[in-house]
Amino acid sequence: MQKTKIRDLKSNFDEFLVKNFKKIGIKKNDCIYLGVNMGNLFKPFKEQMSLNGNVSKYRKILSNILFDSIKTYIGSEGAIICPTFSFSFIRSKRFDKKRTKSDLGFFTSEFFKKRGVFRTQHPTHSIAIWGNKKNLFKKNFSNFCFGLNSPFAIFKEIDLKFVNLGIELYNSITYIHHLEHLNGSFHRYYKPVTGYIKINNKVTKKKIFTFVRIIKKNFVTDATMIQKKLLSEKKLKLKFDKNVYFSSVSCNDVHNFGLRLLNTNPVFFMKYNS
């Protein structure tokens, strides 16, 4: 792609993103946790990019444009957080904080490599943070992926917002599993996995615990109802622009609503898979 075309694309995308961030209540200095589908997010610009439907061909360029646009809007006093989960650890028993790819799409795998980004070290449920909140995530967390001594417990403290771009909230809201941990769950358990973790060129053998479904229970995750509940209570701000989904919701609202719903029904975030 020519430099002139990239510059024009970035300018148009910046305008598109800023307009919709304002519509869903995202402000400068906010702390946001991103759920992103780049293919859907950049669909309105396919003709400008002459992609003929192939967004993946230029995904590194698009990833850089997206990161720069969000970073400029949020500013260094805010924070951008991305999930960089790597479930491959369960099979490979190997995790390198600097190199192991995220299983959640190209953008998240590129994000943790960016300058100024810190990645936490839980092998299956790492997250990556850019901005002035990253020092909060440099503590020694427990070997359990969720709970009061996990990175997910910090989200409420920093008044975080879950922001979704091109992908609906119910498809990316891992935080509900943190709530299931807090509430107690009969359909999930902590599976121990022992493997080798590389951090700062030092390899350590370590046992970690990852939250998995009990297959025999025949339940699968279903977060559609909490999305509907948050929308009906006007807590979820949702907009469509050029058929692209944008939404934001406060972590505090997800936390409070989620625990209340789980207290009523312990399998509220599940559906029976007959």
Report on the architecture of this protein.
The radius of gyration is 19 Å and the shape is globular. It starts with a helix and ends with a strand. The strands form 3 sheets. Strands 4-5-2-1-6-11-10 form a 7-stranded mixed beta sheet. Helix 1 packs across helix 4. The chain has 274 residues and is an alpha/beta fold. The protein has 10 helices and 12 strands. It has one domain (3-272).
Summarize the structure.
By secondary structure, the chain is an alpha/beta fold.
Largest sheet: 7 strands, mixed
Low-confidence stretches: none
Estimate the strand proportion.
25-35%
* Order of neighbouring strands in the sheet with most strands: 4-5-2-1-6-11-10
How large is the radius of gyration? 19 Å
Helix vs. strand class: alpha/beta
Order of helices and strands: HEHHHEHEHEEHEHEEEHEEHE
Tally of alpha and pi helices: 10
Tell me roughly what share of residues is in helical segments. Answer: 25-40%
Termini Cα gap: 48 Å
Secondary-structure topology with pairs:
Elements: H1 3-23, E1 31-36, H2 38-41, H3 46-49, H4 59-74, E2 79-83, H5 89-92, E3 94-96, H6 106-111, E4 117-119, E5 127-131, H7 154-157, E6 161-165, H8 175-183, E7 188-199, E8 202-213, E9 219-221, H9 224-232, E10 237-241, E11 244-250, H10 251-264, E12 270-272
Parallel strand pairs: 1-2, 1-6, 3-7
Antiparallel strand pairs: 2-5, 4-5, 6-11, 7-8, 9-12, 10-11
Helix pairs in contact: 1-4, 8-10
